[in-house]
Design a protein that fits this description.
Helices cover 76% and strands 2% of the residues. The protein is mostly helical. Strand 1 (4-9) and strand 2 form a beta hairpin.
Amino acid sequence: MLDRKKLFIAAGAVVAVVAAVAIGFAITGSSAARERSNVLALAREYIERGDFDRALDLLDGLVIKDASDGEARALREEAMSKKADAAAGLAAGAATPSPEAEALAQSLGELGRSIERSVSTVTGAATPPSPAPTPEEAAARQAAAARQAEQAAAAASARSAQEAAAIAARAEEEARIKAEQEAAIARQKALEEELARKNAAVRAAMEEVGRLVRVGKEAVTAGDYAAAKASFDEAVTKLPAGEARFASGTWVDIAESYYEGYRRAPDSAEGVESVKQAQRAAQEAMRADASDARPHYTLSKIYNDTRMTDMAIRELEESVRLDPSNYQYAYELGLAYYKVKKYEEARRAFEATIKLNPKYEMAYMNLGVTYRMLKNDSAALTAFNGAIKLKPDYVRAHLQVGSILAARGDTAGAVKAYQTALSFESGNTTALREMGVLMLATGKPADAEKYFEQALAASPDATTYYNLAKAEYDQGKAAEALPHAKKAVELSPAVALYQYQLGLVAEATGDIDTAILAYAKAGELDRKDPKPRINLGVLYLDAGFVDKALAVLDEAYKIDPKSLEANNNLANAYAQKGMFDKSVFHYETALTLAPRDTTIKRNLAYAYVQSKAYAKARDVYLDLIKINPNDWDSMFELGKVYVSMEDPANARKTLSELQARKPDYERRAEVESILRSLQQ
């Protein structure tokens, strides 16, 4: 006769042990190494498909189980980075452009190739070298670097990974704009000094051109593109002869104005016309002075916005070649390389940026991210710490430091990094979640619950609801966890892990119908995970639906033939069906996976008895008694086996010993009855 007790299954991802009923006593353990390998493989598949949330859910689970799992953390960082890039519009797999955008890109490409042919005749001629930056320009660049701290602060309001990525992208854009504005101010001052050295006629002509360009810029700002074009067209007709550098600068100013007009309304007819005019003006600047780096930089922005990445990189490379002392060009080139996964080139560009401007914390930050993609976390850590040294409240850098230290198993260091991030930005969802993950990994579910509750207040998304439900479930607070688990599924019904957690919580609260539906859905969504099938099979066994149990448990076994839980519960199901030959096979398999597990031994002995393999049953019961001399049930069953083997001497000896050593044995009457029958 077999007892019925719970079988606990390690839940893999961010999931605690799951209660599952088995015929027999409680057993523990699973094929952890195989499960981890399967989870990593599946996560990689999700990342390749761009399904970053599902990949992160799986990887979060591995990190919960082992905070020092470097491979899981590295893959998790890759998923987070690619998700952030996608959210910010920087990922290689950006959204497919609209037909209008494709048409615009084609038009720009054709125009670019056409004008470049004529530009090449100019660039082939001898031209004066580009002058070194003026002191004013250098000062402007340094001032722009100092202002980066204000820009990065925008990221402090991020409430989810996607929102944080978008804010970070805006910070990058605002930093670029400010750097360009400071450089423009410096150029204007230099122009004024140059004007002072010119003769009256040239000076008057330059001043008039400058006035017309300013009028055109104001018209663009006001949305009056026709008036802007009229002013710009008049300005270029009044360019003084022989002033190539001034002409190039004028065309660049016009190109930048048109570009800003495009950025204001990129999908409008005026916006489309503006970007075409911007491209033409930039290329006219190149005709005027082939040594000027600025028109190439303007073109790089146009091509980047219209997803002509290769052309954008080419123009940035030319900008850097013509003006190697401009840190902004080097930095933008690093971003462009990173976007197309040229990480080694990006590394060199960011390092060049730092040499040009050692106080540019964003360059350190992006250098660190690039090193992480190059699998060099030691160098990445140095870079992130460099960013923090320049900007102590650089939250994104603290988060990266925490991630690296957690992957190294330095829990204390990771906690310090995340807590520092929270000291500057108390509602940072990433820091709160990571703190919760670390607390779960270190066996502190109550602390994890607090962090996840705070994260939920900052970002009520599916992941946070799931994490909170997990933390509550681990504390035995299934009733509190149930609404949170349901909310996670409501927000993201296609995530297998969320469905599985709902099944665990619902089962713990006695809501078996919900548990069955959730386990079934989890199995449908993740066809490589045996756990939901095992738990579903156990629920079917409890409800008396043995055939249904066999079907799902067999699926689990086929997924992982060496799963202890699949084999044990499949053996239980076959035993209920009276198919003891198959029951024996799966119990024997389970026993090879857990050779000292007394529950499996007892179940196996019972199956041997039912299949009349008495000698094998005898050996197993003797082994159980050797392990625990006070195992009275095994002693009783052994006595009955001797009877079945027609060995009355050993039967009397065994049962008499049981009667003497355990006089209050609960089945004493049966023992006495058998002994009396043996005396006849």
